[in-house]
């Protein structure tokens, strides 16, 4: 005769053993896995995607995945957009907005909430970063490095240059090659090109930079001196023509004036004019 109580007890024992085994396997998996990777899971939220965009875990994983709305991405991640593609990702009050044909890699160091480094290799990307300790969020390009405490700014990278435009707060921008640094405030743009020295700054939307303005000022100064010399020379030619006949001396004076220089024009042309009376 079957003992139903014994059968039920056996069934409950098998179920209990199965649950314990399943829990043990999961616990071992968690212990063996990278704790920083487990912590960073679901760090960035994808709020908006338009057009073509992809992502992949930036840790020896060559497989690109399609970026979609409402995805959760790890703290260490690489994202790229194609053509007219755009994407917006957020973490807390931090926002990163990628424009078309942009590529970034977000690399948290040690504690993802403490330090974040974004390597931007292409395109234009906007950043709105919550206030934090200085040096805990930075954007690196091949030409410049932007370090922020908390601000709104954009970084535009091309083959030959990189530029930072600040909409809110301030950013410290340094030349990745020579270490030259500039503080960039609201409404200003800093740029570094392939062969430039230091960091060029100017107002946003202006083609002039601090370096370009200094060169322009130097050129204007030289042009101003040349202009004064030219005027003095013309005056000298006029004075020198006084001693000859009106027509001859006016022509000679004009020629001498055009080629003369300031005081030399006055002295030489004057003496020649007086020393050679008309025939």
UniProtKB/TrEMBL annotation:
InterPro entries: FecR. PANTHER family: BLL6125 PROTEIN, LIPL45-RELATED LIPOPROTEIN-RELATED. Pfam families: FecR. Residues 233-245, 259-273 have a biased composition (Gly residues). Residues 196-279 are annotated as: Disordered. Residues 196-232 have a biased composition (Low complexity). It comes from the Bacteria. The lineage of its organism: Bacteria, Pseudomonadati, Pseudomonadota, Alphaproteobacteria, Sneathiellales. This is FecR family protein. Keywords: Membrane, Transmembrane, Transmembrane helix. Residues 95-171 form the FecR protein domain. The keyword Signal does not apply. The keyword Protein transport does not apply. It comes from Sneathiella marina. The chain crosses the membrane at residues 12-32.
């Amino acid at each position: 005769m079957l003992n139903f109580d014994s059968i039920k007890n056996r069934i409950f024992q098998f179920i209990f053993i199965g649950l314990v085994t399943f829990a043990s396997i999961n616990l071992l998996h968690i212990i063996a896995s990278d704790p920083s990777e487990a912590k960073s899971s679901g760090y960035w939220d994808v709020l908006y995607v338009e057009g073509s965009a992809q992502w992949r875990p930036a840790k020896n994983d060559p497989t690109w995945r399609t970026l979609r709305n409402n995805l959760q991405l790890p703290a260490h991640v690489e994202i790229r957009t194609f053509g007219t593609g755009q994407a917006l990702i957020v973490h807390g009050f931090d926002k990163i907005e990628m424009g078309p044909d942009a590529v970034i890699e977000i690399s948290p160091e040690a504690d993802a909430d403490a330090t974040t480094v974004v390597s931007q290799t292409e395109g234009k990307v906007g950043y709105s970063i919550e206030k934090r300790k200085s040096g805990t969020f930075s954007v690196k390009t091949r030409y410049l490095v932007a370090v922020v405490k908390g601000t709104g700014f954009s970084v535009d990278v091309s083959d030959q240059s990189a530029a930072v435009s600040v909409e809110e707060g301030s950013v410290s921008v340094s030349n990745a090659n020579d270490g030259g640094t500039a503080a960039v405030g609201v409404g200003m743009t800093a740029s570094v090109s392939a062969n430039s020295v230091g960091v060029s700054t100017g107002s946003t939307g202006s083609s002039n930079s601090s370096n370009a303005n200094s060169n322009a000022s130097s050129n204007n100064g030289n042009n101003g001196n040349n202009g004064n010399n030219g005027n003095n020379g013309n005056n000298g030619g006029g004075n020198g023509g006084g001693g000859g006949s009106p027509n001859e001396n006016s022509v000679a004076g004009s020629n001498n004036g055009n080629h003369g220089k300031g005081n030399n024009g006055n002295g030489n042309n004057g003496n020649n004019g007086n020393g050679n009376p008309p025939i």
